[in-house]
Each structure stands twice: as C-alpha cells, then as structure tokens.
Amino acid sequence: MCGSLQTGWLLCWILWCQFMKRWNDGLEYKKPGPALFNSYALYAYDSVWLAAQALETFLNSNGTVSYSNDPKLRDVNGSTLHLSSLRVFDGGQKYLDTLLTTNFTGLSGEVQFDSDKNFIHPAYDVLNIGGNSFRRVGYWSNHSGLSIVAPETLYGKPVNGSLNSNSKSDEHLYSIIWPGETSETPRGWVFPNNGKPLRIAVPNRRSYLAFVAKEKNPPGVRGYCIDVFEAAINLLPYPVPRTYMLYGDGKRNPSYNDLVNAVALNEYDAAVGDVTIVTNRTKIVDFTQPYMESGLVVVVPMKQAKSSPWAFMKPFTIQMWCVTGAFFLLVGSVVWILEHRMNHEFRGPPSQQLITIFWFSFSTMFFSHRENTVSTLGRLVLIIWLFVVLIINSSYTASLKSILTVQQLTSRIEGIDSLIASTEPIGVQDGSFAWNYLVDELNIAASRLVTLKTQEDYATALTKGPKAGGVAAIVDELPYVELFLSSANCQFSTVGQEFTKSGWGFAFQRDSPLAVDLSTAILQLSENGDLQKIHNKWLLRSECTDSLNPVDENRLSLSSFWGFFLICGVSCLLALLVFSCRVYTQYSRFSPHEGGDGDGETEDIRPATRAPRRSLRTTSFKDLIEFVDRKETEIKEILKRKHSHNSHDSKRTHHSGSPSDDAGGAHA
C-alpha cells in the first residue's frame, strides 16, 4: 500500500515537471523568473483531463453522442431566449457514471471519487504566513483531520473520529507564530489606547505592604490588589498593554484623594490599589465593582477587667434580672390562689400567707419549696415554671463560670458615639479618607486627629494612651484593622459596629470601557473562588489565641428567654381563667346567708322558700371574697347539704297535699 502511494506521488511529481517544462517552452511572452501557479489552476488542469479521459472511456464502451429535445424547456410568451432550441445529451447519466469511476494521477495528486460523489483523500497543507514568508505547520485531510503527519502515510490506518489515534503528537499542529513574533494565542483586538500601554498608578505605601508594595527584585509592584487586578485582566477577551507607575515617595502613604484627582486630570489612565470608593471620588472617575468590602471601625486598647464583688450579677442584664424576679412573684401568687381553697399549707393569717407567697416563689429557684401542691391547675403551673427555672439556672451557671474563669477585656470607649462625645485624641492612618470623613461628616475637631504612618505607630500610640502622648482610639478601615490585630498580640480590639459601608475598587477615567469589563471579570473571580484564593495568599493571618473576651459578651439578655417567659405567663393566665370559671359556677349555686360561721359547725340551713337566692348583681364584693376564702371542702359540703335539704322539703310538700293526710287531720 505504501509502495503504491509512493509510486503515485513520484508519478505526480514527474508529470508536474514535464508540465512545467512544456508550459515554459510554450509561453510566447515570458516574464522574468519562473512561472507560478496556484492550486486552483492545477485543479482546473486536472478537471479538463478528467473530462477528456471520461469521454474517451465513454466512446470506447460503444457510447454514442446524440441529443434530443427536453419537454421541460419551453419558451415563455414574449421570451427571446429560445430555450426550446436547446438539446439534451442522451448519454449524460452514463457519462457521469464513467466520470465518477475514472481514476488517474494528475498534477494536483490522485483524482478519484467515492460512491457519494465526494473527492477521495483530499489533503491540504496548513501554512503559517508571516509577512512575505510562510511555513508549513501541518496538514489537513478528511481522513486524519489536522495533523503534523503527512496524510498519505495515514491512509488505511485506524483513526479516532477525524484525528489519528496512533500517536498523540499527530493530533495537533506545530507552534504558530502570531503577529508580533509571539507564540501566545491572541485573545482578540488590542484595547484601543492610541497604540500606547495604559499608565496605571500604584500607591507607593509605607505601611500595610501586603495590599500593594514596590517590588525591588525584579523591579515592579506586588501585593493583594495587584494580583486581583492581573487576574481580572487575564479574563478579558482582549489584551490590555499596561505599565505600572508608582505614585508617592514611599516615605509615607500618598494621599489617595490626590491619586484619584491625578487619574481624573489624565495624568494616569487608571489607579490600581487599595482605593476606597467614596462619593466625592465617584464624581470625577469611574470605579469597578468592589473587590473587597470595607468600612470604618474603632480600635481601642483593651485592659483586663478587675474582679468585682458584684460579679455574680454580671451573667444577666438588668432587664433580665427584673423580669425574672417579677415572674418568681407572679408564679408564687398564682399558685397561692390556686391552692388557697384546698391546701391548708397555703392558709392562715394574712401575714403568714404573704410570707408563704414570697417563700414559695423564691424557693423554687433551688427546687427546695416544702409546700405541696394538691390542685391540678397548681401542679400544671408549677411544672412549667420549674422547667423555666431549670433553664435559667443552667444558663446562669455557665455564664458565671465563663466570666470568672476567662479573662475579660474592658475599654472606656464603647464605639464611635462615645468617641465623639469625648475630647481625647484619635489616631488616623496617613493618606486615608477617614480624616476628611471625621472632620466633615462627624464634626470632630481636626486638632484631635493624629496621623499615624506605620503599623508600629498604631501599637505605640494605643499603648501610650492619651495621657502619655498617644491616642485613645484609632479610626481606620476594616481590612487594615484586621491585618493590624492579627499581629498585635491581642492587646487591642474593635468596639462597636462598622459605622460606614464601602469597598475597594480600581479607578479609571470617566467613560472608560475597562471599568465595565473589569467589573464583570471581578464578579467572575468572586463566583469561581479565585478571589478568595488570592485573599488567603496575602491576607490570611493567625487569629488571636488568648482567651480574652469583652465583658458583655457572656451576659444573657431577655431576648434569649422571652419564649420561656411567654409560655409560663400564658399557662398562668389559662389556669386563672379556669379557676375563675369554676368559682363563678360554685358561687352562682351558693347563697351567702345560708352559711354559718364559716366552719360548717353552726350552719343554719333554711328552706329555700324563706331565703331565696340573691342574684349576682346584688351580691357585695365582700361576700364574694368571703366565699373565695372558704375551703373547697366546706363549700362542697354546704352545697351537698343544701341539695339534700331541698330534696327533703320537696317530699314533705308532696305528702302534705295527699288525701290520706287530709283524712287523718279531720279524724284528729
């Protein structure tokens, strides 16, 4: 197979040489240099030979050349084309079949067709053209696809799809040299900037060099902000030529307001670094999507809290203490009301009953109450309350243990409000927008602000304090503060909440298309996790390992227990409602004048006809209180006797009205 292929290509080369000799000899007008042909001329030459050989074969096989009229060709009214005069070759189909079966080697190579009338083994050279020269980087054929191996050597070998499966090196082309003498595949049109690279200003910082800093060897820039910008640039569908230019002398942090103004004045095309997006800056430049959240916070020195004789009060807030005490009294009173009528332990003189209420209420805190509950409603309320007390005791014990065993931190400054109210000096990072914000927005006197240049200045100023020439607190952006606290040995901490919300972005001149495209790229970095990886590379630091917590961190407030108090309160209310309905039912069947001294020993039960029951409207409040104060057993006994007495009177009335009684009376 390979021998026949080599013979065919050798024959093709001989024919080509003979053709070129005849062509050059037959030219009447010759230009200097050799005659040049493109591939289309060679295919045209072979097509003529193909038609001639097919016609010769057609005639040798007893084919005849004859024509006939085609009924489909008719002249339209008024037409001058005379289509009806055209004739159709009668042996056309046979001639086409002969043409498709013709096989020969021409100037363009082997000429042969398959059953689908497609050219067999078409092959092309893949050329890499650069300037006035070109180089072959591979081949293409419908058998092997793109390959660096000549197609004729792959015919007859197994393939995978359209690529050669015998060798992995056969599945690609040689390296391509792109314009600009680079082997890197271009991503599209170059960003239009008059052919010049972008002038990107980078702040030459003195402190917090993890965000952005000058690279000494090799010269350049580095840092978290630079890596984010480079990662976003690489996601753009076009290259962006750029040049980083340091802004500032490196002896102190540059003014970021001046940096943004320089971009607006066309001194730079963009600013890349830890540039905060604030309102006055967005009026003169365009920012990208924020790639890091930021906000102003307050940093203060923390001191270990001294032990206090009132430390046992710290686990609960004042509100929690008040509500808990109120519920102790409430539950004690409710249980007394429910138990008073049937439990002798809840009866006695008023002073004794009052003491019983207080004793029972607060003794449930330690589950040491000695009074027994006998009523169903009282037991229900007490069970729910004991469950609440169990939760409160457990939480109180855990919180108190944490407060007494863990070192606590305290600070006179509790947040930005207390800092504004004081007159002590405040530290601000050099070049930060925090200076203008504190003076213009919060109306803090500029004389109170102290500029700090390095992280060492932060620690020194906070350690000294305002009395020794330092500061009471530092106001700075959260990313800087987190980096500072990670290396401050847990001596300092933030207090309060962030009192501004902003972010860091890249600044461009107004209407720059890069701002929009980079915003999309930053969002893509955030979604695929690359932004977090860059953050971990530069800013991941060990956290504070000391057990230092703010004083109020372990205090329990009412918000953690209001659900328990609600359940307990609802159960007390429902128990009182059921108790009231029960008392109301009994009182409606009871007449105060039917009872004696209240002990049941000298009761005077009169007939109902002589002492009719009074309505509830005519009953005095005193009578109601006296009824409620009676024992449950006494009330039930009175109602039972009253019911039996009424039944006896009914029987006597019935017998006095009978005829035998009348006769007996007459006989007497």
TrEMBL record:
InterPro entries: ANF_lig-bd_rcpt, Glu/Gly-bd, Ionotropic_Glu_rcpt, Iontro_rcpt_C, Peripla_BP_I. Residues 639-655 have a biased composition (Basic residues). The keyword Signal applies. Residues 1-26 form the signal peptide. GO terms for biological process: cellular response to oxygen-containing compound; response to wounding; signal transduction. Its main location: membrane. The keyword Chloroplast does not apply. GO terms for cellular component: membrane. The lineage of its organism: Eukaryota, Viridiplantae, Streptophyta, Embryophyta, Tracheophyta. CDD domains: GluR_Plant. Pfam families: ANF_receptor, Lig_chan, Lig_chan-Glu_bd. The chain crosses the membrane at residues 316-338, 380-398, 561-579. GO terms for molecular function: ligand-gated monoatomic ion channel activity. This is Ionotropic glutamate receptor C-terminal domain-containing protein. It is found in: Membrane. Belongs to the glutamate-gated ion channel (TC 1.A.10.1) family.
